[in-house]
Amino acid sequence: MIVRYSRRALGDLEAIYDYLDDQAPATAQKIKDLIERRIRSLSDFPFMAPKTDLRSVRELSLARYPYKIYYEVEDEEVWILHIRDARRQPWDGRN
Length: 95
Known about the structure:
Elements: E1 2-5, H1 7-23, H2 28-41, E2 57-61, E3 67-74, E4 77-85
Parallel strand pairs: 1-4
Antiparallel strand pairs: 2-3, 3-4
């Protein structure tokens, strides 16, 4: 499967990476690598994460870190919709 990113997800990654570089420079690369590995794993295991209450949206959590990756599987593509800090209010699919 091909993994693709929505514009929103790309913006999310940029904001998360900027935050990590600023707040936790010593561990920033480790967390970035984990996020990217987990997303890449979706190309082989697209249905590995549980579905959410939002139709066809799945939620992939990162162990040890408070980030969640929301995505959909469409045909032969995995679309990363949103990447969110789980310490924030849960995502309702709108904002």
